[in-house]
Each structure stands twice: as structure tokens, then as C-alpha cells.
Amino acid sequence: LSAFSKVQTNNLLNYMYANTFNKYYIITTSKLNDWLKFATKRNLHPLIENKNVNFKYATQIKQKPVTIKIFCNFASKINNSYQRYLINDFNQNFNIINQKTKIIFSSSKNPFI
After folding, report:
1. For 24, what's the count of Cα atoms within 13 Å in the CB-facing half-sphere?
2. What is the CA radius of gyration of the chain?
3. pLDDT (tens digit, 9 = 90+) per residue, 13-47?
4. pLDDT at residue 21, as a whole number
5. Which end of the chain has fewer beta carbons closer than 10 Å to its terminal beta carbon, N or C?
6. Cβ(14)–Cβ(33) under 8 Å?
7. Which residues pair with 62 in a beta bridge?
8. Do residues 61 and 68 touch, judged by C-beta distance below 8 A?
9. pTM, full prediction
10. Is the bond into 65 cis (omega within 30 degrees of 0)?
């Protein structure tokens, strides 16, 4: 890359436009749920208290930074390594480059208790 001889400056400008100006990612809930189902089947979370972790659904709550809220049954006990796996897989699947992605785990209260 050379600014003086103007070699490959178009490639640099295209890269900058594709990765810095597209800061707002809007991902539909159906695509998020399809990704979540595929990612959790490919690599299962370890058992917690001899029970499986059931990931119910996911939704996007913020665009900048991209914040995803995932509802599951053991929200406070999700491993950090599994959370990193989900973030990396999400970024790779949706082509998010050079942007922070945040995943929040939440569980609903049981109304029958």
C-alpha cells in the first residue's frame, strides 16, 4: 500500500467503507434464533447440576454495540468460555468485524413458585 504512488488505495477505501461505516447491524429475531439453535447443537454447554441448559430464544436489544439477549434456564451459571464461543461464532456467522459484541443471558421467573 502506497499513498505516494496510489497503489491499492481503492482496496483500502473499500475495506474502510465496509468495516467502519456499517456500524448499525439489524438482525431479525428469526435469524438470531436459527443461529442460536445451530450453534448450541454444534457445541453443547456442559451440564449444570446434572441438567441441560435450554436456550429458549434470542433477540437483539441494541445496535451499537451489538447486544443480544438470550433467554435460558441457568442464566447466571453460563461458563465464560461458552459465552466467548457464542460471541465468536456470532461475529463469524454475521460478518461483524472490528466491533464489540455483547451477549446478555436472562432467565424468566417461574410464576408457579
Report:
1. 0
2. 18
3. 887 777 665 567 788 999 999 999 999 999 999 99
4. 57
5. C
6. no
7. 67
8. yes
9. 0.76
10. yes
